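Before a colleague's protein record goes any further, I have to sign it off. What it holds is a sequence and that sequence's fold in token form. My question to you is simply how this chain folds and whether the tokens agree. Thanks in advance; the entry in question is below:
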Amino acid sequence: QVQLVESGGGFVQAGGFLRLSCAASGRASRNYAKAWFRQAPGKEREFVAAISWSGGSIVYADSVKGRFTISRDNAKNTVSLQMNSLKSEDTGVYYCAADQQLELRTFRPTDRDEYDYWGQGTQVTVSS
């Protein structure tokens, strides 16, 4: 069983930055594709970014391109999300997700139903 634990959320003013981290358990999960999703109050969970097992393939939602950077460290079995130039609309609970696929091209990485494992989420609040 794979467990994902997010950290790094908090309260920040618009224009500021935060770095989220997700630690995964289970040796096999080191090579899983991983992603970040977020959910604002009253809205559906939406895709933010995804990264392949090697880090060689990355996909971002249009709303975060140029501001957010996803990265991973397979030795530590972690995935991170650097969030810069934060906006009030970035507010929400951020979830880490993992899928047993290695490459993003073999599934639909922007579809939340594709992912096998989820963390509990970490709250990000951006004040305007």
